[in-house]
Amino acid sequence: MLKFDVVSVTARTVALEVDNEECFYSPNRLNVYVNDEKVDEVNTNVFIIRNLMPNREYSVWLEDAVTGEKSERKVIRTKDETAVVNVKDFGAKGDGVSNDTSFIQAAIYACPPGGRVVFPQGIYLTAPVFLKSDITLELQRDAIIRGVKERELYPILPGALKSEDGEKDFYLASWEGNSAECFASLITGINVENVVITGEGTIDGNASFDTWWHEPKVKRIAWRPRTIFLSNCKNVLVEGITVKNSPSWTIHPLRCKNMKFIGLNIENPKDSPNTDGLNPESCDNVLILGVRFSVGDDCVAIKAGKRTADSSCSFEPSKNISVRNCLMEYGHGGVVIGSEMSGGVADVHVEKCIFNYTDRGIRIKTRRGRGGYIDGIYATKIKMNGVGTPFTINSYYFCDPDGKTEYVWSKEKLPVDERTPHIGGIHLNNITCINTQIAAAFIYGLPEAKIDNVVLKDIYVHFDVNAQPGYAEMLSFIEPMCRNGFYINNVKRLEIKNVKVENQLTDALIKLNIDEEHM
């Protein structure tokens, strides 16, 4: 029987996920019925039913448009809604010329708990606006929130606020894993709870190579903003909207809990610098579901802070993160962990995703100096096409000013201390990679802290016979590769079962310094 799960419910929307074995797309188109009326026809495993009424029961079921197979009916009650606030009633013009910042902010702060702030069709030019708890922002079809270009109109968030008792500082903002002053983001939420951002509209960071992307590593007044930034927030749902042209990372939850990102479309030009798609940093319980990515850096990058010589902040882990039924069309990596991982990353599940033409697929990157741990990483039921290197674990990542020092690149066995990163269990299963370019895998642990356990099971890698040489990973003194097999070095326990490689120019498996093998 056709099956589906309810993954989120608001006052006006319901998000559903089809329960099947396919990645991102359903095998056939599906008819969506609400109270026995067909309301939509979809071809993806995750979709949103819109335009419902608050506090009502709806009977929902699906039908395979080809076979006629029907699902069971599920009765869903939408949530209550206290009020509707139209930003135009507060003076917002939505003409793409007028600065609507103060009018939008007034509408948000006037909205009562449980209310909905509505952006009708229009282009709302604005500087950063700040969320508050217990509200919904809805961008209706053809509504665009667009950032102003002048950085002088962006408030500055200090990296941290010092506590009066000196026991625990409050961290407001970070730049590449360290507490640092940053411009506020177009949509900024600080210490808010129970927030929904939904709709069919667009949040446009309005970045370009004339503004935020010009000299991206130079701090001018403060570090670049994100497009959506959520700091110390709980119970936030972002669904359905398009987010594009981000000044830096597109969506950045920092030290947040219970976050859902469903059915989004995240778009940045392929050559835009550091425009990662979605970067949960030191977050707990995050669902990234049915999101389409096409960005200028990593699609999903899971982070947990960065230890440096002058680090003053405490580190918190990222854990319980699920990335499912997503489409990564372009980016440096499909799902990436690190390199900022000093607080630790654990219990990450990547499932039923498609990676098309990303530089790397599942990517783990760290180096000496980071400390921390990465453990319990599971990737299964993934399809890759045209990916440079589908699997990489790089313990010698050469980022930062000191990234090319001998301490980082040395292949000698160095002393283990708090700066030594630890990589635990990595499980890769049921993955198909076609038109691969550079290497099937590049897995390189530290000699003094070998990777604990790597499991490769039911994996097929097919190389493009016209592939060109390139770098499998970013580390010092590596040579270009082309159609290389699985390169695996410095692993305690390696388990390989039903792994096949075609059209490679080297041995399918290149294994060095493996303590224990199970074939």
Question: Describe it for me?
Answer:
The structure is a single chain. The protein is mainly beta. 3% of the residues lie in helices and 50% in strands. The strands form seven sheets. Strands 34-35-37-40-42-43-41-38-36 form a nine-stranded parallel beta barrel. Strands 4-3-6-7 form a four-stranded antiparallel sheet, with no helix packed on it. It has a four-stranded parallel sheet with strand order 12-21-24-27. A hairpin with a 4-residue loop joins strand 1 (4-9) and strand 2. The protein is globular, with a radius of gyration of 23 Å. The protein starts with a strand and ends with a strand.
Describe the structure using short key phrases.
4-stranded antiparallel sheet, 9-stranded parallel β-barrel, about 525 residues, mainly beta, 44 strands
Strand elements, count: 44
Strand content: over 45%
Largest beta-sheet characterization: 9 strands, parallel, barrel
- The low-confidence runs, each spanning 5 or more residues with pLDDT under 50, are none
Strand order of the largest sheet: 34-35-37-40-42-43-41-38-36
Look at the helices and sheets and give the structural class.
mainly beta
Instruction: Give the number of helices.
Output: 2
Arithmetic mean of pLDDT: 96
Helicity level: under 10%
Label the overall shape.
globular
Distance between the termini: 37 Å
